[in-house]
TrEMBL record:
Protein's recorded name: 4Fe-4S ferredoxin iron-sulfur binding domain protein
Domain of life: Archaea
Key words of the record: 4Fe-4S, Iron, Iron-sulfur, Metal-binding
InterPro entries noted in UniProt: 4Fe4S_Fe-S-bd, 4Fe4S_Fe_S_CS, Fe-S_Ferredoxin
Lineage: Archaea, Methanobacteriati, Thermoplasmatota, DHVE2 group, Candidatus Aciduliprofundum
Record-annotated 4Fe-4S ferredoxin-type domain positions: 19-48, 50-81
PANTHER family xref list: ADENYLYLSULFATE REDUCTASE, BETA SUBUNIT, FERREDOXIN 3
UniProt source species: Aciduliprofundum boonei (strain DSM 19572 / T469)
Pfam families in the record: Fer4_7 (PF12838)
One GO MF term attached to the UniProt entry: 4 iron, 4 sulfur cluster binding
Length: 133
């Protein structure tokens, strides 16, 4: 199961990418940190057994390993990072990333271009004044 808003990753059906956490129940001490910190609702928590459950694995953000990095006993495993990189390559996400980058930073690019233009105008004016003198 997953939430609709996480069904696709750069237009790729999320279920096609095998990226999600696995918990070693023998190592897990049930602290609950993973269940609390994941902002995507991947985990639920069994209050009886005092263990987290990977309830919505495909909500997991491809490439994220935050919960594994924070688990105090290293009980969370992910596939090798290469799985995420390969998903990015295979699905040609960088074409989409480029477009998104341009959209996200369009205003910033415009302002940089204006500043550059103003700087060049000042510079040209200075040169003209030097040439006149
Ligand atoms: S952070 Fe680690 S030890 Fe804590 S509940 Fe999650 S898996 Fe278990
Ligand atoms: S890796 Fe990130 S998104 Fe995936 S379950 Fe852990 S905290 Fe949530």
């Amino acid at each position: 199961m997953s939430d609709k808003k996480f069904d696709y990753w750069f237009g790729v059906p999320r279920k096609e990418i095998k990226w999600y956490p696995k918990i070693d129940p023998a190592a897990c001490i049930g602290c609950g940190l993973c269940a609390v910190i994941c902002g995507r609702g991947v985990y639920s928590y069994d209050l009886v057994s005092k263990k987290p459950i990977v309830a919505k694995p495909f909500n997991c953000l491809v490439g994220c390993q935050t919960c594994a990095n924070l688990c105090p006993v290293g009980a969370i495993e992910f596939p090798p990072a290469e799985v995420a990189r390969e998903a990015a390559r295979k699905n040609k996400i960088f074409i989409k990333v480029k477009k998104m980058l341009e959209e996200k930073f369009a205003q910033q690019m415009l302002e940089t271009a204006k500043q550059y233009q103003a700087q060049m105008t000042r510079h040209e004016k200075e040169i003209r004044e030097i040439e006149k003198s």
